[in-house]
Write a structure and sequence with these properties.
The protein is built from 18 helices and 15 strands. With 489 residues, the chain is an alpha/beta fold. Helix 3 crosses helix 4, helix 6 crosses helix 8 and helix 14 crosses helix 15. It binds adenosine monophosphate.
């Protein structure tokens, strides 16, 4: 099926063509007709399903058919600034021939451009709740003529404690508006929000709770102290250009990026304390392919939309099974194939069972041919690694890796990687930190670890240095009201 049957305005269709979409995704097929008919819609869909265009196209269609100047007519509320930026970009690209303008409102950046956009009555406001409420309470903007409200990733907003702010914003919207709510999961709090916000909604659901069919899953049983070497060797063999690696804590993300960076491999990290500009630079570098490997915590990675992430590596297992679905929702997006690789120690057996339950199948256990799994635990570990291996909190983490001591044989066996279906789910609990500085070229990892395989130079040059540079001078705590992801992660 093409986009023609939706009877979108010609200028909206031209945006669809310009962006290169030929066929609608299932959530678009299901939702667009109802949204265009003016119905309230509850979309049970995860990031990666194409839900943004599912609401952006009908909104653009409505606005372009009946142009009004200087009036904010659509409000999209999103939990993180990355997601807000992506939505804003989608409106820009899909609406490029419409003249419809959108603007973002989120914390961690200057207020003035946002104030101007609100006061000018920009057509579409894409906002994180905290900053929007701040600016509204200062008397900026007017939401009394909003025709369409979108609450995107509502379950994440709940997780991040934004629902009270969302409710305050809702009070400023007219009653007769159309409301759309998207959520990957339906906790009780979201059911209540749905009841309060939507009128006689149509429910559309896509691949709820299951990751993308285009993702191949594999587990790599490994001792905790060999994870870095195993990852280095996998990266060498894959020769991959866009690998997203998850660690449980922000400190581990930073340290790992420092250890991996070099030898022609450009590695950056996003976690706490990074300015929005630095964070965006790291993400842009990753998108462009200048940064080959991005190491992130769950929270810092929210909203990352890089269509061609080839591999997601769970260096540490997530804290929840939903966290797994969320992480691997970063690969295999929009019909691209991707691999989800998870390093598991014996201590992770329970989480592996829970993840397999969600996937509905056993995940293949892989053993990397030629990799030395018998290298003993080094006599000296750096302080962070020691804490983590003892099961303590390193940089804010909650669960321990493998306990120190004698290496134990990894659990083996295996079959071809399973394929199952995409998504996003609730974030994996604590362990994040606010997004922060990328790695600097490592040069001197203090950790005396056995060198199993040296990375082969892949290519030289590129902007990882800049993307990866930390930003200590800007490091400061921002209150929750500074908004968006920065406030909570
Ligand atoms: P979303 O779930 O909205 O974050 O979209 C996930 C990815 O799918 C984004 O990179 C979109 O640009 C892409 N996408 C959305 N709709 C389509 C489509 N109909 N065809 C191809 N790619 C799409």
């Amino acid at each position: 099926m093409s986009f023609e049957p939706f009877a979108l305005h010609a200028r909206v269709l031209s945006g669809v063509r310009a962006i290169g979409y030929t066929d609608p995704t299932p959530i678009q097929t299901q939702a667009i007709p109802h949204v265009m008919a003016g119905r309230d819609v509850l979309g049970l869909a995860q990031t990666g399903t194409g839900k943004t265009a599912a609401f952006a196209l009908p909104i653009l269609d409505r606005l372009v058919r009946d142009p009004k100047r200087g009036v904010t007519r659509a409000l999209v509320v999103a939990p993180t600034r990355e997601l807000a930026e992506q939505i804003h970009q989608a409106f820009g690209e899909l609406g490029q021939a419409t003249g419809i303008k959108s603007a973002t409102v989120y914390g961690g950046v200057g207020m003035n451009p946002q104030i101007q956009a609100l006061n000018r009555g920009v057509d579409v406001v894409v906002a994180c709740p905290g900053r929007l409420l701040d600016l509204l309470s200062q008397g900026h903007g007017d939401l009394s003529r909003v025709e369409v409200l979108v609450l995107d990733e509502a379950d994440h907003m709940f997780d991040m404690g934004f629902l009270p702010d969302v409710r305050r914003i809702l009070r400023q919207l007219p009653r007769g508006r159309q409301s759309l709510l998207f959520s990957a999961t339906m906790p009780e709090a979201i059911r209540h929000l749905v009841d309060e916000t939507l009128t006689d909604p149509v429910t559309v659901a896509v691949d709820r709770g299951a990751p993308a069919e285009t993702v191949a899953h594999a587990l790599y049983p490994v001792e905790a102290h060999l994870k870095t070497d195993l990852l280095r060797e996998l990266l060498r063999r894959w020769d991959a250009r866009r690998v997203l690696v998850f660690t449980r804590t922000k400190h581990r993300a930073k340290r790992l990026a420092e250890k991996l960076d070099g030898g022609g491999l450009f590695v950056s990290s996003i976690q706490g304390n990074l300015s929005q500009r630095r964070r965006q630079e790291a993400l842009d570098g990753f998108r462009r392919g200048d940064v080959h490997v991005l190491v992130a915590t769950d929270i810092a990675a929210r909203g990352i939309d890089v269509a061609e992430v080839s591999h997601v590596v769970n260096y540490d297992v997530p804290d929840t099974e939903e966290g797994y679905t969320h992480r691997i929702g970063r690969t295999g997006r929009a019909r691209h194939e991707g691999d989800a690789v998870t390093f598991v120690t014996r201590d992770d057996a329970d989480m592996v069972r829970r993840i397999e339950k969600v996937l509905g199948e056993r995940i293949a256990r892989e053993r990397l041919e030629g990799f030395d799994y018998d290298v003993p635990l080094p006599a000296r570990l750096d302080a962070d690694e020691r804490r983590f291996q003892r099961g303590g909190i390193a940089g804010g983490g909650q669960r321990g890796g493998a306990r120190g001591g004698q290496p134990r044989p990894p659990v083996g066996g295996g079959r071809a990687p399973a394929r199952a279906s995409a998504g996003d789910a609730r974030p994996a609990g604590p362990g994040g930190g606010r997004p922060s500085g990328g790695s600097r070229p490592s040069g001197g990892a203090s950790h005396p670890r056995p060198q199993v395989v040296a990375p082969t130079p892949q290519h030289a040059g590129g902007g990882a240095g800049e993307a990866g540079a930390g930003d200590r001078s800007r490091r400061r705590r921002r209150g929750r009201r500074s908004g968006g992801a920065g406030a909570r992660d």
